[in-house]
Structures
1.
Amino acid sequence: SPAASVPAKFASGDVKIALVRQLSSGDYFEQWLAGAEAEAKALNVTLQISSGDGNNDKQALNLEQAVNQKADAIIVDHGFAQTVQPAIKKAADADIPLVAFDVDPGTPKAVALSQDDHQIAEQALGALKADTGGSGDVIYVYVAGFAPLDRRNETWTKFKTDNPGIKQVAQIGVVNSSTASAVADQAKAALQANPGTKAIFAPYDEFAKGATLAVKELGLQSKVKVYGADISTADIGVMTEPNSPWVATSTTDPSNVGRVAVRAAALLVAGEQVDPALMVPPALVTQQQLRDGKITNITQLTQAVPALVTPDVAHVPWSAS
Ligand code: SR1
């Protein structure tokens, strides 16, 4: 069928979407932004980007500002419910369309976008179970309060109940501007305190990179394997290094998720219907698969796993992308 005509406000380049981020450093957030920017360009939308850089009060102020400036739509990218929900309510009261990625908006007027975090944890833990036979000491990396990590934690909690042979011997975790190196320090201490550890469940790529570094620095690659989440070209390099302990990750294509967020916001600006809960499915990516397929970057990965690109999630009828 012929493509729908471009709404006038988009054709004239008058659409402004505020992107209000909690975090911006690290591979995941950089790729996500690149996807959001590419989609904004394709849709002739101006993206007004701010980041709290981990400062929740700053993110809340940035969000207040986006509401006061009457952006055509707002995307809230991560954040803690208690710091962003008051301003999200103001946006809803002012009828400003809003997409909340990885944070509970607290109002049904906003579109809630997430990755399927339960599936992310299930896929990574499925690999861990297959490799360990369902028993052994495991170090877990987690920080409470981040919605995606909290959902993955629900799956981990159930997994431990369902697999009594799996013993969590330590919980570590930090999210800051140098997450990977902070987690590496913590993981080294946890590994030294728990010499029987067989696996580290680290469901965020900065966690997995830190865990991998710790295992390598202690020379434990043959004993301890890492099961992570997310992927980037740099992560593919880490996973496929000779003797790398990072053997599996469950992931979306982060740049695809950024694209989906902008498409959903654009649809709302155009008055189109959008599913109130959008979810992007992940795929399990293993070290073996990357090596066998000679995959060295994200472009090659999305060619090998086309399901990582989801053009039908928040499809924009007037756009070719
Ligand atoms: C600190 S939260 C990090 C997570 O946000 C996104 O959901 C990514 O998948 C990442 O793991």
2.
Amino acid sequence: MRSKPNILVTGTPGTGKTTTSSALAEATHLRHINIGDLVKDKKLHDGWDDELQCYIINEDLVCDELEDTMEEGGNIVDYHGCDFFPERLFDRVVVLQTENSVLYDRLSKRGYTGAKLTNNIECEIFQELLEEAKESYREEIVVAMKSNTVDDMNRNVTTITEWVSSWGSTT
Ligand code: DAT
């Protein structure tokens, strides 16, 4: 067993993965790995998708890059997808969820418009990330958490921090 757990924080863009992961990293002293930044910095992509306005992630390169770090444990991985990581990498999979109207405002503020905006809102309406997480990981390690308000976020960070503190003593 890993001495420290690996946690995946996933959800539709705008649900608060990066903000939550960063607060969680501060509270737990685990390492925050933002996959979007990693892909960009280490060029783990197959170019730029003009239509979706994002890098085309190369999932194999990302998994290779993460392997050693993940084996050590103690990582918080933040990404809006979860089905391509090897299942054994994670001890907890957190799926953040946000009400449509709140998410719409956050994504509009971020400059999302047109298809990019509606695709992400639909992704949230259909709970696509929760489905993907349940299909990819054992159901008992998948937890859905509401992320509408700052209070929600603080509560989520506290809950996960308590779980991290108990790691090793209860498992
Ligand atoms: P993600 O990483 O899922 O794309 P983010 O962490 O960048 O999302 O957050 C998007 C914006 O929404 C950012 O301005 C912070 C804000 N936000 C995120 N979670 C929130 C919450 N639970 N309550 C209030 N604001 C939140």
